[in-house]
Input
Amino acid sequence: MSIPGLGQIAPTAVQTTTSAAVSPTTTQSLEPFWEYRFEVAHGSTLNIKLVSGTAEKDGTELAPSTPYAFTATKTRINTWHGCTLEISSEPGAVYDAYTSEPTADETPMVSYVNLHFKLDGLRATAERTGQMGPRVLVIGPPNSGKTSLVRMLTGWATRVGRQPLVVNADCREGMLALPGTLSAAVFATIIDPTSEWGSTPSSGPSPVPVKLPLAYYYGMASPDDNPRFFKRLLSRLAVASTSRLTEDPGVKTSGMLIDSGGVNAKGGYDHIAHIVAEFSVNIVLVVGSERVGSEMQKRFAGQQTSLGETITVVGLDKSGGVVERDAGFMQQVREAAIREYFFGSSKTTLSPFTQQMDFAALSMWKVNQAPTASDEDSYSEAIEKAEPSLMMQNCTLAVMYATVHDTAETIRDSNVMGFVYVAEVDEKRRKLKVLAPVSARLGDRPLLWGSWPEPMVSLVG
Amino acid sequence: MTSYSESEAVAEDFREALEDVNTNDRHEISNLTLIARENTEHALAISGALVDHIKRIAPHKKLPSLYVLDSIVKNVGTPYTLFFGRKLYHTFMDAYAMVDMGTRRKMDEMLKTWKEPVPGSIDTRPVFPPDVVRPIENALIKVRTTALQQHQAHMKSQQQLLGRGRPTAQGMPYRETPTPPGARPPPQAHGYQLPNHSTNGMSYGQPTQPLPPNYQSHPNMPFPSRSTPQPMPSSSAFQPPPVGGYGMSQAGISTGSLNDDIQRLITAFKAQIAQAPHDPTIQTRLKALVDLQTILQTQNLPQDQLVLVKNQISDLAVTIRASPAQPPTPIPKAQPVAVAPPPPAAAPKVSLDSLFGSGALAALMARSSSTPQVSTPQPPPATVATRSPPPQRAEPQKAAAATPDPMALMNMLRQAGMLPPPTPAVATTPVPISTPVPVPTPSLPFPIPLPIPGATMGNQSRRPVTMETFTGDIALKASSLKQFRPQLLPFLFEAQGPQCTQCGRRFARDEKGKRKKTAHMDWHFKVNQRIAEAEKRGQHRSWLVDEVDWINTRETIDKDHAGHPGDSDAASGGSASKAAKVEYIPVPDDAALAASVCPICQDRFETRWLDDAQEFVWADAMKVGERIYHASCHREATKDGGNTPMVFARSTPEPVLGKRKAEQDELSSVRGKMKTEFA
Ligand SMILES: [Zn+2]
Ligand SMILES: [Zn+2]
Output
């Protein structure tokens, strides 16, 4: 792929891998368009403070002279005006950092921010005419920076007073909910720069306003595991999102930003078309793949949304710094999400509760894989009753907004109330020990058991 | 339904037809007007094509195209007036900046007629509403005033320099064929004006209408009405009238010599790039130079700022000499750079917009809106009359009401890294370029200072006006998106006001912004207070809300929630008392209890996120024993009995069996509604 402006050469990247033991505090100066890219290991913390200039992390501006503690992350801080950062870490902290030094012609950030301004123009038009703001879907191959782009567009939108409804249609990763869910949330306030998406409500106050997600449980890693179920949940999410959008004026003008899972090489465009249709997507952003871009162009050329708008497909370069995040790292990220759900972060410590439950008192359902299911029958069996077993040990179950008396269909279509973690299964005494976020009994809420996120051994012990 | 491609095709035809309009040929103009009239459904595309054309074509060809615009708005009217109106300021001012004096006069005349109704039309409204025309007028008045003042100042103090200056016109290709006003066939100002404004009465080629008297009068025109060809140095877009045959050369530093220097440097840098094509530093500097050149050619900069520019150029000259990659030939001073004007194709580059992106001029002007000489306030939008209801018209461009302020311009340059930060005392003597100042590398000043406080864009009018206007040129295409538009960045930064030191959010400096900031700081304060308390108490993750509650949730931003639950109790509960304001309970953690309904009315409780308490609460709820009631229901049921047991005066009997049923009915009805409406 050609680099805009200068052809063949890649943005200058100066490797400055830092050995934390040598210099705990360093100063990093960035010129306009440069980025400070860093990876911090699990268990290590990197503190970054903006000393002068302006700086952003995924569209959210850093406050001046305020230390931000990053842990277990691969991310970057960019600047439009130039800045000086003060970087410090505990001795022995493991992290890797370098500056990327592109020019305005080289950085895809220019396209991204222009996109934001264009969207904000469209939102202004929507505001004036009482129409719906743009519904934007971001797709692309894995590791092309889709989520980062969605987060950037979200951050910029809230900065200018918009309230976009952000949808996560990527079941592999969670947004304000655990992996395996599809979720949506309105972002009206800033995202904590040290987090992916911020945190969900807890019983105590949060220094950064919490975001309230609506989540549906899919419980599998790939849309291909049960395509019909996946699409069904997307439709549920679309109905609820559209309702919110229609009834909430600030959200209506701001529109939607939809993050999708990576499109794989052998197609997988089927659920993309479904998202476009269900969410009335009118702008499709294709990041980092001209091939996928032209596929999408072909697919949606001449098509219109349910509102009669033309569907526009836009190709975007991926950020040069998007690194392949290996499977091990991603698993650590998922485990960190589960840990944070129950125990909170370094900023806010949460205390979950353990409960003993009789098998008999439980309404347990298993999410089934059905990769080739195409008929309504196998689809309605997307979930089936399951007897608690040792298989569930170390698994995270979804607590559903339904009752044990509801039909399988109702339970399947319900949204997620929360999660419990199965700490211990005693098949002899037919008892289950779970970790729950709150102390009260679960009552007659059905629990759904899927294969994603994968069992996590080290949560309690 | 109008398809995009159809519009594109029509616009393409229109564009081709436009290419043929090189003179003020009445027939061609009429023909294009007819096309526009017959294709009003493609008005957006057509107007876009025309505006682009005006922007793109060589200065000496701009006038005919402007006449096309003029003809369309007068003979067709809406929707063209709306579409042109949005960009009229840029269209007009950009063209004005580039054309010669004669054309400027024609444009002045044209502008005047836009303030009037179409002659002979029954429509008494002006061609363009005042809010579209006035910013242009204001800008022109400012230009003339500045020009006049500079001229007078010059006359007073610099008489000895008479004749010394030289008209420099580098990079101004249209000087190649100096076209004195009147040398061209007279365009018969508005002679092509179609006599009948109504649809069926288009009689092309009819004798021209007598011009309204005001067409010829120009009370505001300080330009001397000279009939002789004017050797105008057009290097400055808004420049004073030429007097005595000399151009812009003023006291101290002459823009002309600066231009020469810059041109030499540009040539030198280009040579360097040929040697090291991938050195981004050189690219950056070259761009800075080209931009600088443009600024010089299009703006009148005061002396002290010219000194800054000059210093900057000297610095750059040093680097290019010191540069190891320096090619043998291009030594700045020594090399006589081709002074020949570039090919005409380069002409459109002169406009600020073509360098900084569309809207740059307006952005600059918006920045300078704090300068005192802003003219009379805009009339209220109510006086704006549109000729036909939809589409909605663009709001008045408040941002454009002011005129270019060199200070703002310099700030923008500084922000873009082209100029150093303001220096306290500036030498009044120019630094000769032959005396290299020992400054190391004039790389981008770092960190680049943000613009001066108070020079922010009008926060009040930031939306919806500005975003639509300012982003109008961005197309959802890779090529358009890749173009850096520094003029838009302030919308994310300084235009939003200063940052909250705790979280980095920005708050405008105006009254509304101050109120928001106060509420925001209160929020920080309360939350910080509560965090300390919560840590002692112990915290846990909350359950999420269900679909219906989520849909009904509204985000709250730094709202002061004292009494918030009570506010809507007043709406639902009837007896809104102060007591009711605190009647909420945290949503029960107990999942079974969380599903309960009010025993009195069988309704569910309204879940709200109480920002102040940072938790979910049930509004208008109270716990009596182990049961939860609506506070209002409970009050109603017990108001005359005190301790008497509940008297359920509900029409629904079966309170026990009906509970689950009522809840489910409600849920399914909402879901049903969602399905029918949005599925
Ligand atoms: Zn704050
Ligand atoms: Zn009640």
Summary: The pocket of zinc ion (ligand 1) is lined by residues B 500, 502-503, 505, 520, 524 (CB under 6 Å). The two ends of chain B are 24 Å apart (CA to CA). Chain B has a mean pLDDT of 60. DSSP finds 22 helices and five strands in chain B.
